[in-house]
Amino acid sequence: MLLAAMRLLVADKDNQIGIIYFCFEEGEETACGLKGMLDALARRQIDTCWGIHVYAGLEANKICLEPGPRMSGAAET
Predict the structure, then answer these.
(1) Element (H, E) at 58
(2) Using an 8 Å Cβ cutoff, are 20 and 10 in contact?
(3) What are phi and psi of 14, to 5 degrees?
(4) Number of C-alpha atoms within 13 angstroms, CB side, residue 77?
(5) Could you tell me the pTM of the whole model?
(6) Contact 77, 42 (CB under 8 A)
(7) Rounded Cα–Cα distance for residues 49 and 22 (Å)
(8) In this structure, what DSSP letter does residue 59 have?
(9) CA-CA distance, 4 to 26, in Å (whole number)?
(10) Which tens digit of pLDDT belongs to each residue from 31-77?
(11) Are the C-beta atoms of residues 28 and 52 closer than 8 Å to each other?
């Protein structure tokens, strides 16, 4: 999903304002890559963050939205 979003945004880059970071969390299922990723992102001025996690237990064609951290790598910053 993220690669597809990246392709669409790159194709439309002339209409984009600012910098867009794309992150793939190393060791996502065990959260072992979370701290390094958060440390790297903390050194940048980021206005907005959006994340997605594929969840097999969710009914097809549905999305689940909820504020705050969730899933295996969730952490408060």
Answers:
(1) none
(2) no
(3) -65, -20
(4) 17
(5) 0.56
(6) yes
(7) 10
(8) P
(9) 19
(10) 677 788 888 889 998 888 777 777 778 888 887 787 877 665 555 55
(11) no
Task: Decide: 37 and 23 in contact? Cβ < 8 Å.
Answer: yes
Boundaries of every domain in the chain: 1-77
Q: What angle do CA 55, 23, 73 make, to 5 degrees?
A: 45
Residue type, 48: T
Q: Spell 14-27 as b/e; 16+ CB within 10 A means b.
A: eeeeeeeeeeebee
4 burial via Cβ count (<10 Å: 0-12, 13-18, 19+): exposed
Count how many residues are written for the chain. 77
Question: Which residues, 6 or more positions from 29, have their beta carbon under 8 angstroms from its beta carbon?
Answer: 72
For residue 14, is pLDDT > 90?
A: yes
